[in-house]
Structures are given as C-alpha cells and as structure tokens.
Amino acid sequence: MKRMYSLIAAAILLVVFTSARAQESWSLQKCIDYALQNNIQIKQQSLNSDYYNNQLNQAKFNRLPNLNMGMQNSTSFGRSLGPDNTYLDMNSNSTYGNLNSNITIWNGFTLTNAIKVADMDLRASLQDMQKAKDDMMLNIAASYLEILFADELLTVSEDLKKITQLQLDRTTKLVEAGSLAKGSLLEIEAQFAREELNVVDAQNRLQLAYLGIYQLLEVPSTESFKIEKPNLPEIGANLTMLNSMDVFKNAVQLRPSVKGAEFKLESARNQLLIAKGNLLPSLTFGVNYNNNYNYLINNIYTNIAFGEQLKSHQRYGFGVNLNIPIFNHYQAKTGVSNAQIQLENSELQLQNTKNLLRKEIEQAYTNALAAFKRYVANQKTVIASKEAFRYTEEKFNVGMINSVEYNQSKNNLSKTQSDLLQAKYEYIFRTKILDFYNGIPIQL
Predict the structure, then answer these.
(1) Which among 320, 261, 262, 247 has a CA at the least distance from the CA of 288?
(2) 200: domain CATH number?
C-alpha cells in the first residue's frame, strides 16, 4: 500500500512538472528583469525617490519670492460715526483686499544648505533603490541555482532507482527459479521502496524550489514556467578567490549601500550647517499693496463710486525686515547639538555599513573556498564510490555478498553524489556573489 501511495504521488508530481515544462522557459536574466519591473518593494523605493525629488524641487523653489493675495468682506448694522461727526443709524458693507510678496535676502545660508540636504537625501534614496535591486538579483540567482541543484538531485535519484529496478527484476527471477532465498528479494524491495521515496522527496524539493522563485517574482503558481538550463561555469579557482580584501576595496567604491551611507553623512553635515545658520540674523525684503471699498446700505449719504474709492483708498509700500535671534528657549542651540549627534551617528552608520560589507565578502569568500575544497574532495570520493559500487554489484550478481552490503554501497554512492552537487552549487553561488561585489553582473 505504501508503495502504491508513493507511485500515486510521483504520478501527480510528474503531471505538475510536465505541465510546468510545457510553459515558456525563463532565463536567469528574464527572471531578474521581470522582478525589477514588478517587485512591490522596488516600486515602493522608486516612489520614495520621487518623494525626495519633490523635496529637492521644493528646496530650490524656496529661494523664489512668494506672492499672496487676501480679501475680506464684512457687513455691519447699527449706529456709527458719520461724515459730519454725528452718530447715525448706518448699515454698510465693506470689502478689503491686499497683495504682498517677500523674498529672503540672507538667512545664514540655510536655503542653500537645505538644497544640499535635499540633494543628498535624493541621492541616498536612489542608492537605497539600487540596493533593493541588487538584493533582489542575488535572491533570484540563489533561487535559480536551487532549482538547478534540485533538478540534478532528482536526476541522480531517478538513476539510482533505475539501477535498483534492474536488480529487483533480476532478483525476482532468481528467487522464482529457486537460486536465491526470498529474504534477498525482500531486502531489494525495501531498498526500491526507499529509493522511490527519495525520488518523491527530490520531486518535492524541485517543486518547492520553483514555488520559491514564483513567490519571489510575485508570479502566481498557476502561471508556472520552467527555467532554462544554462551551461554552468567550470569549477576552478576564480580570480575573485585570490584575495577577499581586493574584492572589498572594489566593493566599497561600487556598492550602493556604501554610497547611500556616504550621501546620508553628507546630508547630516549640511543639516548641521542649517542648525548653525538658525543662530544668525536673517534679512528679508517685502512689498505690499492694500485697498478697500465701502458701500452704505439704505442711508442718507451718497455712496462714492467704486472706481473712485479704489483710487482714493489704495496704499502700497516696501521694506526690509531684520530678525536677530537673541533668546528662543535654547531651541537653536539644542538644534545644533542634535544635528551634531546626528552627524556622529551617520559617521558610525557609514563605518558599520563598510564593516558589514567586509564581513559579507569574507563570509562569501570563506564559503566559496570551503565549497571548492569540498567539491575537489567529493570528486575523488564519487569516482571511488562508483568504482566500489561497480565492484560490489559484480559480487552481488554472483552471490558473493548479500543485499544488505549491496544496498549500503549504493547508499554511499548516493550520498557522495549529493554532497558533490551541494558543493558544486554552493561554490557557483558564492563566487557569483564575489563577482557581483566586484562589479561583474550576475550571469549563468
């Protein structure tokens, strides 16, 4: 019954993957391009950059003079002082209007430094968006390689199952002929059942690997696709494996995380200058124009014409305003202190970003080197295991060993092949990370 369930599960997975393989094939570059265009986090980073671009434009517009217009209308009833200096019942409607404009002549360079702050913030946001794209590309590359690894692992499992199937058929015939005890057949059947399960596990792993990249790309599983199988690079000493510090020196100049931290540091420096500028006097120049119109309602006096009132009531002027901060509850001084703290924090953040980058590169370098060593060692182990299994199979066929020893030898071969594949893809991924830090695009 267990074997039947395994066969049913394998058949279902086979149908799923056959359907997936009927879909369009996606290369690594296509997966990356799709993610960069459709990923929600990257879109949010793009909107964040648009926001900072608006902030920069506003900082530039703040240097321009302003222009404001105001109007007020009021109606009054009751006694009021008339033209002949006597109080009378007078109802009136009055309309007032004014127009004014002001421009900052000097304010401690805060406007200029505000533009620099906004510019640095915009540049930092663009680097944050690029970092989000870089992280996405690395994640997609990891998922892509996981699919390739799972696919090869499935092939190994299927090949081992085919070998066991041949032995199962042969042993069945020998048992039926009376040449072998039924216990040998039971051992082979148990081994075959385990390898069927291994195939199902490998198929499940492949399916989960595909699901991982679907979710990473925000693609529904109903719109499944298969990936293209590229010609993987030869496993050998990579140039980036020569010295991790050389990779770090290049990465410091290239990586958006470092550039973004540098822009944020420069922004903090200009914010400190703005805070200091608030301690200085400011000088503004302004012009204004005022006018009004009065209308007497049901009164003994004759209303003056609208145009004549506008001519006689108009007032205009201009002037300068000097503001000297003397004491404002230490707000400006506190602002300078907080800006200095923020500057020091930005310096630490930049150093921390560089330290994290160095650690990531060192970790990738160490993992790649270890994977390369494991790959070389496993290559020899696989060759030896294949030869050992071939020899064991020959002895098993002539009855010199039992099925337990035969199965043990085949399990050893399966493990060494799996270890070799793991080391292979671990090495490829880590070297791709190092290349990426070196400014080399991710390609397979």
Answers:
(1) 320
(2) 1.20.1600.10
